[in-house]
Amino acid sequence: MFARSAVVAFVALPLLAQISFAKTCARTYTVQDGDICDGISAAHNVSTYQLAVANPSIDSACNNLQSGQSLCLGYEGEDCSTTHVVKLGDTCDDIAQTYGFNATVLNNLNPQLDAQCDNLYVGEVVCVSNTASVPAPPAGSSLPAATIPATAIPANPSVTPTAVPTSVAPAPTSAAPAPSSSASGDDDDDDLPFCDEL
Ligand SMILES: *[C@@H]1O[C@H](CO)[C@@H](O)[C@H](O)[C@H]1NC(C)=O
Ligand SMILES: *[C@@H]1O[C@H](CO)[C@@H](O)[C@H](O)[C@H]1NC(C)=O
């Protein structure tokens, strides 16, 4: 009797935990003053998509990071830690080819990218490990980072005339600014661009 109920408890607990609680974080990071989402992603080899999915409390513009806040960088078993930071001129085909696969695979690893790859932006961090598992998109909502953030520069401005955000000041032909520089610079919040649409 006792042995049997003990077994039941052992079996039931992990199952319950799986159903009721968030997945286990494989890696965590404590937010520092001045951090932006894509800066954290670039420094820690976390895709923009994965950071957004693993931290649903971060708002769509990544404007609500709190210094000292603990972020989940990836779930156990679904943690892609081989990443590429998008540069001006990158295309999905180029990136995929560089890492030895095709754009379809890149899309599966980074489900926020649209089929035409015209929402790729400078400073975005993409998973480039074709052996990685990534978390599924959140049910019932739009994909994280499905659109180019208002402050970000499209990776391919020439092929994405309709996707150019209205409020971006610098011409796409100028050098891409470092992710920490502000595109419009009216206040501190502008130091938090390049994040994701949850
Ligand atoms: C991120 O990946 C690069 C390239 O593989 C590696 O050199 C670097 O140590 C990694 N950084 C972290 C924080 O894992
Ligand atoms: C991309 O690569 C995957 C995996 O190798 C393959 O199944 C798929 O057919 C390829 N897609 C295209 C469009 O080539």
TrEMBL record:
Gene3D superfamilies per UniProt: LysM domain (3.10.350.10)
Keywords annotated in UniProt: Chitin-binding, Signal, Virulence
Domain of life: Eukaryota
Entries under PROSITE patterns matching the protein: LYSM (PS51782)
Gene Ontology MF, one: chitin binding
LysM domain: residues covered: 27-73, 82-128
Biased composition (Low complexity): 154-184
Compositionally biased tracts (Acidic residues): 185-198
Region (Disordered): 154-198
Signal peptide: 1-22
PANTHER family named among the record's database cross-references: AM15, PEPTIDOGLYCAN-BINDING LYSIN DOMAIN
The protein's name in its UniProt record: LysM domain-containing protein
